[in-house]
Structure formats: structure tokens, C-alpha cells
Amino acid sequence: MNNENKEEQKGSLVRGLTNRHIQLIALGGAIGTGLFLGIGPAAVLAGPSVILGYALAGIIAFFIMRQLGEMVVQEPVSGSFSYFAYKYWGKFPGFASGWNYWILYILVSMAELTAIGHYIHFWWPDIPLWVSSLFFFILINALNLASVKVYGETEFWFSIIKVVAIIAMIIFGIYLLISGTGGSNASVSNLWNDGGFFPKGLFNHSENGYSGLFAAMAMIMFSFGGLELIGITAAEAKSPEKTIPKATNQVIYRILIFYVGALIILFSLSPWREITEGSSPFVMVFQNLNGLEFTMFGKVIQFNVLIANVLNLIVLTAALSVYNSSVYSNSRMLFGLAQQGNAPKFLQKLNKNHVPINAILISSCFAGICIIINKLVPEKAFEYLMALVVSSLIINWLMICYTHLKFRRSKIASGEKTKFPSIFYPISNYICILFLLAILVLMSITGMEIQVILIPIWVAFLFVMYKLYKPKQG
Fold first, then answer.
1. What sequence ranges are listed for the domain Amino acid permease/ SLC12A (predicted)?
2. Domain for residue 57, yes or no?
3. Under 8 Å between Cβ of 342 and 94
4. pLDDT-derived band of residue 4, with 50, 70 and 90 as boundaries?
5. How far is residue 305 from each of residues 283, 287, 291, 315, measured CA to CA in Å?
6. CATH number of the CATH domain containing 72
7. CB–CB of 97/260 below 8 Å?
8. Rounded distance, CA 446 to CA 139, Å?
9. What is the pTM for the complete model shown?
10. Residue 255: its pLDDT value, please?
11. Domain for residue 343, yes or no?
12. Residue 87 belongs to what domain range?
């Protein structure tokens, strides 16, 4: 009897995610709306040096992924880093990391569902935003209730669309540069010919606030939120000792290609001063092609109109991908918390497809409530909720780095060798922790004080909830 059948008999999660699923889930976690739409504000602050910022942030994200990867390959369990924080650090860290992650992606779900409504509105403005949000809310949750393989397959194709789109943009951008059809301003020299590669310095203060590479690092770092999703998949991955290391190691050069490579091409095609906070370099590529048109099915189509529709499809796919992964990861985190005793036991219930049905339904209810809140309360309340996303993400990464230190010390003390050692332990852990603390300092002086202040407040709230809940565990 194979392991999968044994797991099914025990009523456990089933290892239904194959190598290709894990590969694209890992890659998809690194490619979201932050890449397509979020680059604009960072580019305004830093100019072309934002390319270096994404490379540095990518290396830090890779170190964190390797630390998480070492733990989940050694012990591929549900709940991922919450399980490890609970086992190797303490009961409260396990409680806090799990619920912090859950709240983080409930809020992300809310934001993505709202965004999905706006993207559908682009094509069909007569459809109310709440209708399209509700439609995809039901659809994605239904897919996740089917089986883990359905989730993996859905995320595989979402990621394929994003990857193909970026590769197509890079290839088309290279063609525009080489052929000279990208416009009179298109040149590789755009990377340095207007104030140099660091046109706003590393960190400058002017009457308009701070600018420069360091000032943009917080925005840049948050683009990589979601990479830790690979740790959640470990309990349902086939041969995690093979698939997790392979997917983790390939992330670093894919980040270099999709972020750094794409940005080099895009900044070459469009002078950095033309980029505004509300724009994306991906859109700038096509600004000089507005007069181009072609015939399709007997109709004359403007090139810029086609591009607008294609870009809307891409960002819609990115939003659906993030929401799909949020539903998956939140349910597995609740399942893991219930196994630890840090959440109600009924959240361990699996349906006939071995999917944690109650965990999915509870998470979806909270995400749905957030949509209602978003529509009923003033925009400022929504702004504060999303500030909590930033705070939760920093807490999440810091806890992974420190938990890994505790994990390795435990393994060294017991004389146990791990299967997938992280890079440069423990130096890489300290580098990541110092880098993240530096990000907090930068946030506190560049207009993101609320996010920094929320961190101790949020941790204190989690501690109170932990104390209130513990007596009920018996």
C-alpha cells in the first residue's frame, strides 16, 4: 500500500501536487500585481536604480525561501512555519505566526477581490463591482473545495499566463530596441544618461519627501510577498524532498529574469522621468506605438487598444492567482493551527476529496465580510486595514528567519543532518533580519509610520488572544 493511500485512510491531506504544480506555484508567488502595476511608485522614487533594488530584495527573499525550504523538506507538514515556530520556538510564536499569516491573506483576499471587480468593469462597466467580485469569490472557493490537484492545476495555468506575458513583453521590447521601432527615445543609454543610474541618489530629502533607492526599498520588498507559499504546499506535494528544493533554487534566477531582465528592457525603452506613480513601465513600452494598427477578421484594430485589453487580462489573471493561493494557504494554515491546538478542532475536518472544508468556509466568510466592510466604511478604514498587510508581512518574514535559527540549533544539538541546508547559515539569517529591521527604519521616516506602529500593537493583540484562548484548550 503506497503512502498516499495510507494518508487517505487516516483522513489526512493528500499529496496531490506534482513537480510542475510546485514549480509554477513557487514562480507564481513571485509574480503578482506588484510586478505589473506596483513598479511605478518605486521607479518614481529611485529611477533606474530600482533595478538594483529588485535584485537586492530578490536575494533576501531567496535567502528566506531557502531557510523555509530547509525546514519543510525536513518535516513536510501542514501549517508550515507556524508548525516550526510552535515546535522549535514556543507555543505563543506558533500561535502568533499562524494567525498573523491567516489575517495577512484574509486582507490580501479582500484587496484582490475588490481589484478583480474593477478589472471586469474595464470590459463590462454595466456590471456592478460586487457582482463580479461575488462571482469569482464563489468560483475560486468551489475550485479549492474540489481537490488539491484542482487548485494546483488552476494555479499552474494562472502562472503560465503571467510567465508567457512577461516573456512576450521582454522579447517584444528587445525587438523594439534592436529594430529601432521603439521610438526616438528608446535606448539602453536611458539607464544612465539622465542623472546617472542613481539619479535621485541613495537617500535624499527634499521638500517633496524622501527619494532614492533606499526610500524605495520598502515598496520593492513587498513585491515579493507570496514567495513563502511554497512552504504551505509541502504537506500536499508529491516527493517534497525533490520538488521543494528544485522549485526553491530556480526562483532566484527566475526573479533575475522576470524582474531585473524585464526592468532593464523597459527602462531602456522609456526614459524614467516619463514614469508616474499611477503608471507602469509595462504600459510605457507601448506609448510610442499609438498610431500602429492592423486588420483582424475584417476589422481595423488599434494596437494600443489591443494592448490595453491584453494588459487588463494579465492583471486580472494575476489577481485571480493571488486570491486562489490565498484561499488555499489560509485553509491549510487553519488546518495546521487546529492540529497544534491553536485553533478549534472542527477546522481539521476534511471533505471526501481530503480538503479542509471547514477551514476553507471559515476563511471565505471572513474574506466576504471584508468585501462588505470595504464597501460600507470610508476609504481611510480600508487604508488602515491594508497597512496591517505590510506589518503582517514583515512579522512573517522575521519569524521565519528566527525560527530557522532555532530549528538549526536543535538539529545541530541532536547531531541530525538536514536534507536541504540553507545558504550561508547562520550569516544569511542575520543578514535577512538586519535587512528587514532596516526596512522598518526606512518605513518609519518615509511616510509609512502607521505600518511600523501597528506591528507592536498587532503582536500585543495576538498575545491577548493567545492568553484568552489557551484556557479553552484544556
1. 21-470
2. yes
3. yes
4. very low
5. 12, 11, 11, 16
6. 1.20.1740.10
7. no
8. 40
9. 0.86
10. 73
11. yes
12. 15-468
Residue 229 lies in a domain: yes
Residue 474 lies in a domain: no
What is the pLDDT, as a whole number, of residue 9?
39
507538514: which residue's cell?
Answer: 77
Q: What cell does 401 get?
A: 528567519
Nearest to 65 by CA among 233, 245, 329, 239: 245
Angle at 142 between CA 140 and CA 229, to 5 degrees: 50
Closest C-alpha to 438, from 156, 220, 258, 256: 220
Average per-residue pLDDT for the chain? 81
Residue 5 has pLDDT above 50, yes or no: no
CA–CA separation, 35 vs 28, rounded Å?
11
Residue type for position 86: Y
CA angle 45, 49, 55 (to 5 degrees): 115
For residue 271, give the nearest of 185, 399, 357, 369 by alpha carbon. Answer: 185
Residue for cell digits 533595478?
A: 51
Return the CA Rg of the chain. 23
Number of domain units in the chain? 1
Cell numbers describing residue 154: 488552476
Which segment, 23-37, 95-109, 300-314, is predicted with the most confidence on average? Answer: 95-109
